[in-house]
Amino acid sequence: MAARALPDTLPPVPKRDYYEVLGVGRDASADELKKAYRDLARRYHPDRNPDDVEAEERFKEASEAFRVLSDAEQRKRYDRHGHQAFDRATGGGFDPADFSGGFGEILEGIFGEVLGRRARKRGGRDLTLEVQVSFEEAALGAEKSVTVRKPQPCDRCSGTGGEPGTTVRSCPTCDGRGEVRFQRGIFAATRTCATCAGTGKKPEMPCTKCRATGLMEGEHELSVRIPPGVEDGAIRSVRGAGEVGPGGPGDLHLTIRIEPHPLFERRGVDVLCSVPITFPQAVLGATLDIPTLEGKVQMKLPAGTQSGKVFRLRGKGITAYGGVGKGDQLVTVMVEVPEKITREQRRLIEALASEMGTETLPQRASFLSKLKGLFE
Questions:
Q1: Which of 82, 109, 290, 372 is the least crowded, having the fewest Cβ atoms under 10 Å away?
Q2: How many CB atoms lie within 10 A of CB 75?
Q3: Biggest CA pair distance of the chain
Q4: What is the pLDDT of residues 23-51, one digit of tens each?
Q5: How far is 335 from 283, CA to CA, in rounded Å?
Q6: Which pTM was predicted?
Q7: In a 3-state reduction of DSSP, which class is residue 59?
Q8: CATH 1.10.287.110 fits domain 18-111
Q9: Phi, psi torsion values for 110, nearest 5 degrees
């Protein structure tokens, strides 16, 4: 069978219905149209899909549909006549370069700028740093001094990039904007100017110390407030304390690392600690000096206290993050058994054990009773 020859030109692909493109019904509200377009624009924008022709076509298709349907008058014309209402032969049509009105608001919300407008200059890089704080500083709050290494204005040229006494002009390549525009298909984009490295300046004679960058690496001392109740791994951000950039400084993000305490542990807003006591103290009772975050306090130990008993000191814990409420301190008392005793001490303890029997030890008596019943 002979192959059929293809025509020299193929018929144009028919446009899809605008409502179908956005995935909404014909009775969709303005808010529903905007949400549908926002989702599609976020998914198919060329900046997020470089070199993806299909994604670019989908973005153009969705933009065209939203441009028409978001305008009340144009939507009426489309509902009445369909795509023919905007045939270029009749003076209609879609201009891809027109991103005013609703387009600008939506794309600015998604990508941080309005297409077709001059992009904002990029800010400096954010910096990250770990800060070591003590258990007490994390619990009670403190002011910490941290040292940040970052580029700072050159002390020779005061950040101008030019030798003192010489002229610093606007960069001729970017006209002082610090970035240049270029076209990618129907979309305009920007990039940092290679001539001035984003500074927007071109010194007549470059500074010999910073080589026209206007910046030098240096150390910066910064006082940071650690709020009461902060937890290990929490991040505190200091606005404007990052690297300097053409569009302003970045931020500094501090990760809090809490050093372990020799006596205390933390559970939420409560402080835990264990206190060793002697056998006589447990039997007879005593008054103990208990360390807390705010200093020593006295705690009364009742007679007959069992090892492992937990006592609660109200309000001696950690202030909740944000300053609302305060935890307690939980004190666990542990009866310490001596590892070595003298002959006289052994004699006295044996005599005491013989004298006491099991009547004064209800827990042991109960255990022996259950053990006896288990094997009978």
A1: 372
A2: 18
A3: 120
A4: 999 899 988 888 888 888 888 877 677 66
A5: 10
A6: 0.54
A7: helix
A8: yes
A9: -85, -45
Helix (H, G, I), strand (E, B) or coil at 184: strand
The count of other CB atoms within 10 Å of the CB of residue 120 is 13
User: Could you tell me whether strands 252-258 and 127-133 are parallel, antiparallel, or unpaired per DSSP bridges?
Assistant: parallel
Please give the mean pLDDT across all residues of the chain: 80
Contacts (Cβ under 8 Å, ≥6 apart) of 281:
288, 301, 305
Which residues, in sequence order, are CB contacts of 186 under 8 Å at separation 6+? 60, 96, 97
- Burial class from Cβ neighbours inside 10 Å (0-12, 13-18, 19+) for residue 161 reads buried
Describe the strand order of the beta sheet including 310-313 as a list of residue ranges: 265-267, 270-277, 329-335, 310-313
H or E element at residue 90: none
DSSP 347-376: HHHHHHHHHHTTTT-HHHHHHHHHHHHHH-
User: 3-state DSSP call for residue 164?
Assistant: coil
Per-residue confidence (pLDDT) for residue 12, from 0 to 100? 53
CATH domain 158-212 topology: Chaperone, DNAj Protein; Chain A (2.10.230)
Q: Find tokens 């933390």 and name the residue.
A: 266
Question: Three-state SS string across 15-73, please?
Answer: CCCHHHHHCCCCCCCHHHHHHHHHHHHHHHCCCCCCCCHHHHHHHHHHHHHHHHHCCHH
Match 């605008």 to its residue by tokens: 18
Structure token digits, residue 236: 């505190």
